[in-house]
Amino acid sequence: MNKKALAILMRARMRPTDPTKLVFSPLSNDVSQMLPNSRPNIEHHEDENEKLNKQRSFEIVRESMYSAISMNKTQVLDTVLNDFSEGYFSLSFENRTKLLLTLAKDYDLNRTQVRELIKQYLGIQLPNGGVEDEAFLSTFYRIERNLRHSLKPVYEILFERLNTHPGGLKFLTILRADILSILTEENIPSLRALDSYLKEKLSTWLSPAALELHQITWDDPASLLEKIVAYEAVHPISNLIDLKRRLGVGRRCFGYFHSAIPGEPLIFIEVALLKNVAQTIQEVLWDHPPIPESEATCALFYSISSTQPGLAGINLGKFLIKRVITLVKRDMPHISVFATLSPIPGFMQWLLSKLASQSKLAQAEDVSDSSTDGFGLTFYENLLEPEEEKALIDSSGDLAAGKNGMEIMLNLLTPTTHEWANSAKLLSALRPPLLRLCARYLLQEKKRGKALDSVANFHLQNGAMVQRINWMADRSEKGLCQSAGIMVNYVYRPENIEEYAQSYFSTGHIHCSYVVQRYLSSTDMSSTC
Amino acid sequence: MNKKALAILMRARMRPTDPTKLVFSPLSNDVSQMLPNSRPNIEHHEDENEKLNKQRSFEIVRESMYSAISMNKTQVLDTVLNDFSEGYFSLSFENRTKLLLTLAKDYDLNRTQVRELIKQYLGIQLPNGGVEDEAFLSTFYRIERNLRHSLKPVYEILFERLNTHPGGLKFLTILRADILSILTEENIPSLRALDSYLKEKLSTWLSPAALELHQITWDDPASLLEKIVAYEAVHPISNLIDLKRRLGVGRRCFGYFHSAIPGEPLIFIEVALLKNVAQTIQEVLWDHPPIPESEATCALFYSISSTQPGLAGINLGKFLIKRVITLVKRDMPHISVFATLSPIPGFMQWLLSKLASQSKLAQAEDVSDSSTDGFGLTFYENLLEPEEEKALIDSSGDLAAGKNGMEIMLNLLTPTTHEWANSAKLLSALRPPLLRLCARYLLQEKKRGKALDSVANFHLQNGAMVQRINWMADRSEKGLCQSAGIMVNYVYRPENIEEYAQSYFSTGHIHCSYVVQRYLSSTDMSSTC
């Protein structure tokens, strides 16, 4: 990197360490932080004139949107599309919402035409596979194609045109981020239909074939590195030394780039070259001078971040890991282990809600136990083993009260001060149940047959297995909040990737190591390992 | 280029100069020349065993095609897609046809499902734009989306999966080239429907946004340069010196590349840097030492070639010229004129058929003239002016007979020996009518409101104007066959490109220079200039 670029980077505002902002949520306001002017604050004291101006600028943008859709396909289009996207950025969030609703409703499909074509279509017989009149068949296929085309909303034209327009793909991702913002506030069916259509389009345009994998290094432009700092979603980059470290000896960073969105990766992955699979994130981020690369035997994927909130729900990482493994193996044949050190973002949320509901049920059961019939209407499950419950009650002392072990655990884990993490006694009492329940969460808690945890599901569908669950692996505020500091190593065995991905896909089966398997009591093991 | 690459290139078979093979027709067998094994000859004496083997290998490929479509989406897919595409290449043309028909018919859409969804769709009312029940609207949009999806043929899955598979996009273009070959032999409606669907898909994937413009130079790999030699469709490259020349001083070559088809351009354009707009192709291809680039004022586009027969009908050149102009202007601000020296591929075909039909009509008119009523039932048009006709009759001598000027002209121009081009007398007699009729062909002969000539239509829709028509500009066999040796200069004026493209698009209006305009008699000028 040259001096000028470095100077620019030094001035670049580093990401704030406020943990609530760590995850770059597609629905958060972060988009506007990235783009000056993208979502101007709504002024509280606007006078009539201002209102009129806003209305006028809304109408101008709507007009350019209309032209962008209805114009003949020539090169004048470029100007119109520029007007439209620039105009869009100048609108208030309120007017953007209004504009997007106009698009969703007024540029929907022509339903009169659809019904007309359906009538024609139903009027002719299905081809029966036998010898048919050629002209008849041609007509049949033509009507079918026309019907298919008529079912495409008119706004597809705008999406298609923007996609082939310089800067248009990026603009569409911003548009979608706005749409997702609006939809979290209110469920508007027409806008949701538009979103689902746009998402389908974006998925096609951003297929792995259209993405290029590049290594990101310290020699890349500051404008690119600044984005790595801004978008790092898993382990925030705190300063320049930290960034340089992640791109230096013993480290790799790879990104998926799209030619239409130059200078910023859509997703990137950070890799550490180590002697052994790391058990804590601290040793990856802050270890002493890294080992010589020639001594490394393990490539550890310790962070994967998507950069575009508007691409939420589109799986860009699908082939990323497989490609990175291929690249690393080619350059460094002495590396034979490919593992991750991954967060478990949904563990605490799941556990706390489980503890809350079960401890309530336990109390209800107690009440019904003491009633005459002796049959509870509800069946509760004690999430804790008897010896775990005893240890918790013994060690909790003044810190948390509760009618049973689960309630004590809930009261210990809920406060965001995480005092339990500073008490040796509590740590040792919480360790066995937390590790055991974490294994259960990762391996047995499913949603539509797939792992409930989003990161687990990501790696499992890519063909990984659950190798090891690590206690106190991430002591950061965020790590304690998400997963009581627990992290997990997923391992990719190149020779098993395809088999594991296939069995996970078809049966939901999760491969895991013997160590992880042991956390589960033998009676619960039907669906795993 | 290094020595090894050069050696490889030296050995590369140069394109044969057989003029019938000059145009790299999408429907020709050239595909198989490019790809060893792509279309094996059908053996004439195959015994029962061989037949059985062929049948068996057909079934294996069909099986892998089936798996490629029906498999769950995992990484095993890669292997299956490889099996399928390798298997496909091993099939005889006959079996490929059989396979493609299976794909078109058996993996078409599920019409029972379509009718079921249509029934559901017709069962609910249109949203009327007023306040509606949210749940109802959600259902409505869901059914609409399902109907839209159900109208997509099942084979779309195969296309989509191939597109995201390494080498798959290239494979799809070869598949389509085969489909087009089959369709020229027989019009099979189901296969035509498949082709039109595949073409739509390819157009989306090959949008200008997905294409990268690169300059091709002598430093590029021999494997790439070999393709330039093989694919040059306008002015065949005869030897290594010729190729080196086209990439050297005073010349540029730019190609559109797609990241999924590395190492070969999908379309490329050759540019000469000159002092003046060239009037003959010979001065471009064989001029003496080129002028210093700093003295050039004109960039002449003298050849545009598409390389993939399977991409026929997909306009890849749309933004190519505009982008090249921008690039050249940026690097060489002293260049202010952007022109082409273009073939007129359809002129002779149009002229000969016009001469044949009109001279027949003329004879019929003569007969009816000599009959008693004096009113002919047909109206013929003498394509020649009186003085042109006289000059032709005077100069034709023994070379061609005929009852009138048009028939003489027809008989002079038809033989592929082109003896007229060696006679000074005939050249001077033919020059005025040929230039005049060529202007008429370019400016006034339309098909669906657009220029009949495909090259003219290409440049006009890109925003060019017709600048000059050049006599004896291409004396090659091909030039004489296509357009009696005439070529045309189209000119791109950067400041008018958008306006001209727009007016051509919306009204079919063709801009031309005063010189070209003069060829047309004043009475005929309504639709031009």
Automatic annotation (TrEMBL), chains A, B:
Domain (Malonyl-CoA decarboxylase N-terminal) ranges: 143-205
Domain of life: Eukaryota
Signal sequence interval, chain numbering: none
GO CC annotation: mitochondrial matrix; peroxisomal matrix
Domain annotation Malonyl-CoA decarboxylase C-terminal: ranges: 210-492
InterPro entries with a match to the protein in the record: Malonyl_CoA_deC (IPR038917), Malonyl_CoA_deC_C (IPR007956), Malonyl_CoA_deC_C_sf (IPR042303), MCD_N (IPR035372), MCD_N_sf (IPR038351)
GO biological processes: acetyl-CoA biosynthetic process; fatty acid biosynthetic process; malonyl-CoA catabolic process
Gene Ontology MF term list: malonyl-CoA decarboxylase activity
Protein name: Malonyl-CoA decarboxylase
Lineage start: Eukaryota, Viridiplantae, Streptophyta, Embryophyta, Tracheophyta
